[in-house]
Amino acid sequence: MAAPKTTPLPLPSRNPLPLSAGQEQQVRDLYYKRVRGYCANEIRDFASCALNRTISATWACRTQRLSMNKCMIGHATQEEQDAAREEWFASRDKRIEEREAKERRKIEQEKFHREWWGLPQTEGQEQKGEPNTEKR
Protein backbone atom coordinates (compact mmCIF):
# COMPACT_ATOMS: atom_id res chain seq x y z
CA MET A 1 0.00 0.00 0.00
CA ALA A 2 1.51 3.33 -1.05
CA ALA A 3 1.68 6.25 1.34
CA PRO A 4 -0.67 9.09 0.37
CA LYS A 5 0.97 12.25 -0.89
CA THR A 6 0.87 15.09 1.56
CA THR A 7 0.99 18.69 0.54
CA PRO A 8 3.38 20.86 2.50
CA LEU A 9 1.83 23.30 4.89
CA PRO A 10 2.18 26.98 4.03
CA LEU A 11 5.06 28.74 5.68
CA PRO A 12 4.21 30.86 8.69
CA SER A 13 4.24 34.62 8.47
CA ARG A 14 7.59 36.26 7.77
CA ASN A 15 7.09 38.51 10.81
CA PRO A 16 6.68 36.23 13.82
CA LEU A 17 7.22 39.04 16.36
CA PRO A 18 4.17 39.10 18.65
CA LEU A 19 2.38 42.44 18.90
CA SER A 20 -0.07 43.77 21.44
CA ALA A 21 -3.77 43.78 20.61
CA GLY A 22 -3.70 47.48 19.79
CA GLN A 23 -0.70 47.06 17.51
CA GLU A 24 -2.35 44.12 15.76
CA GLN A 25 -5.42 46.30 15.22
CA GLN A 26 -3.23 48.97 13.60
CA VAL A 27 -1.71 46.33 11.31
CA ARG A 28 -5.20 45.03 10.46
CA ASP A 29 -6.43 48.55 9.69
CA LEU A 30 -3.45 49.05 7.39
CA TYR A 31 -4.16 45.69 5.74
CA TYR A 32 -7.83 46.54 5.15
CA LYS A 33 -6.86 49.95 3.78
CA ARG A 34 -4.47 48.34 1.30
CA VAL A 35 -7.06 45.80 0.14
CA ARG A 36 -9.73 48.51 -0.22
CA GLY A 37 -7.21 50.55 -2.21
CA TYR A 38 -6.73 47.71 -4.69
CA CYS A 39 -10.49 47.30 -5.12
CA ALA A 40 -11.50 50.97 -5.02
CA ASN A 41 -13.14 50.90 -8.47
CA GLU A 42 -15.24 47.83 -7.69
CA ILE A 43 -16.27 49.27 -4.32
CA ARG A 44 -17.20 52.57 -5.99
CA ASP A 45 -19.29 50.74 -8.63
CA PHE A 46 -21.17 48.77 -5.98
CA ALA A 47 -21.72 51.84 -3.80
CA SER A 48 -23.08 53.88 -6.70
CA CYS A 49 -25.43 51.04 -7.64
CA ALA A 50 -26.62 50.56 -4.05
CA LEU A 51 -27.21 54.29 -3.52
CA ASN A 52 -30.87 54.99 -2.59
CA ARG A 53 -31.70 51.29 -2.52
CA THR A 54 -32.50 49.12 0.46
CA ILE A 55 -33.53 45.51 0.01
CA SER A 56 -33.51 45.74 -3.79
CA ALA A 57 -29.73 46.31 -3.75
CA THR A 58 -29.36 42.57 -3.10
CA TRP A 59 -30.49 41.55 -6.57
CA ALA A 60 -30.19 44.83 -8.50
CA CYS A 61 -26.46 45.17 -7.70
CA ARG A 62 -25.58 41.50 -7.72
CA THR A 63 -22.90 41.70 -10.43
CA GLN A 64 -21.19 44.69 -8.78
CA ARG A 65 -21.30 43.00 -5.38
CA LEU A 66 -19.86 39.77 -6.75
CA SER A 67 -17.05 41.58 -8.57
CA MET A 68 -16.27 43.62 -5.43
CA ASN A 69 -16.18 40.48 -3.26
CA LYS A 70 -14.07 38.61 -5.84
CA CYS A 71 -11.56 41.45 -5.91
CA MET A 72 -11.37 41.74 -2.12
CA ILE A 73 -11.03 38.00 -1.62
CA GLY A 74 -8.36 37.89 -4.32
CA HIS A 75 -6.28 40.53 -2.57
CA ALA A 76 -6.92 39.38 1.01
CA THR A 77 -3.94 37.05 1.21
CA GLN A 78 -1.30 36.18 3.78
CA GLU A 79 1.27 37.96 1.59
CA GLU A 80 -0.78 41.15 1.80
CA GLN A 81 -1.01 40.77 5.60
CA ASP A 82 2.77 40.35 5.73
CA ALA A 83 3.24 43.43 3.54
CA ALA A 84 0.95 45.44 5.86
CA ARG A 85 2.90 44.25 8.88
CA GLU A 86 6.20 45.18 7.22
CA GLU A 87 4.80 48.61 6.36
CA TRP A 88 3.69 49.01 9.99
CA PHE A 89 7.19 48.18 11.23
CA ALA A 90 8.76 50.51 8.65
CA SER A 91 6.64 53.43 9.88
CA ARG A 92 7.31 52.66 13.54
CA ASP A 93 10.02 55.32 13.96
CA LYS A 94 7.76 57.92 12.36
CA ARG A 95 4.94 57.13 14.80
CA ILE A 96 7.36 57.38 17.75
CA GLU A 97 8.55 60.80 16.56
CA GLU A 98 4.94 61.97 16.11
CA ARG A 99 4.05 60.77 19.61
CA GLU A 100 7.05 62.57 21.12
CA ALA A 101 6.23 65.78 19.21
CA LYS A 102 2.64 65.57 20.44
CA GLU A 103 3.87 65.16 24.02
CA ARG A 104 6.19 68.18 23.64
CA ARG A 105 3.30 70.30 22.29
CA LYS A 106 1.14 69.20 25.20
CA ILE A 107 3.82 70.22 27.73
CA GLU A 108 4.32 73.59 26.00
CA GLN A 109 0.58 74.26 25.95
CA GLU A 110 0.26 73.31 29.62
CA LYS A 111 3.18 75.60 30.49
CA PHE A 112 1.58 78.47 28.54
CA HIS A 113 -1.76 77.83 30.27
CA ARG A 114 -0.14 77.91 33.70
CA GLU A 115 1.78 81.12 32.89
CA TRP A 116 -1.32 82.78 31.44
CA TRP A 117 -3.48 82.07 34.45
CA GLY A 118 -0.71 82.48 37.02
CA LEU A 119 -0.95 78.89 38.22
CA PRO A 120 1.95 77.13 39.95
CA GLN A 121 4.32 75.32 37.59
CA THR A 122 4.05 72.12 39.59
CA GLU A 123 1.73 70.90 42.29
CA GLY A 124 4.05 71.83 45.16
CA GLN A 125 4.92 75.34 43.95
CA GLU A 126 3.29 78.53 45.20
CA GLN A 127 1.38 80.99 43.02
CA LYS A 128 3.43 82.96 40.52
CA GLY A 129 4.46 86.28 41.99
CA GLU A 130 4.14 84.98 45.54
CA PRO A 131 7.51 83.46 46.34
CA ASN A 132 7.76 81.04 49.17
CA THR A 133 9.01 83.28 52.03
CA GLU A 134 8.41 80.90 54.88
CA LYS A 135 10.97 81.44 57.69
CA ARG A 136 11.77 78.94 60.35
Overall description:
The mean pLDDT is 84. The chain has 6 helices and no strands. It is an all-alpha fold and 136 residues long. It has helices spanning 21-38, 40-50, 57-60, 62-75, 78-90, 92-117.
Question: Radius of gyration, rounded?
Answer: 28 Å
Q: Classify the helix fraction into a percent range.
A: 55-70%
The secondary-structure class comes to: mainly alpha
**How many helices?**
6
Distance between the termini: 100 Å
Tell me how many strands there are.
0
Largest sheet: none
Strand content: under 5%
What oligomerization state is this entry in? Answer: single chain
The parts where pLDDT drops under 50 for at least 5 residues are: none
Mean pLDDT across every amino acid position: 84
Shape summary: elongated
User: SSE order in H/E notation?
Assistant: HHHHHH
Quick synopsis:
This protein is mainly α and 136 residues long. It has six helices and no strands.
Keywords:
136 residues, mainly alpha, 6 helices, 63% helix, elongated
Compile the SSE list and pairings:
Layout: H1 21-38, H2 40-50, H3 57-60, H4 62-75, H5 78-90, H6 92-117
Helix pairs in contact: 1-5, 2-4
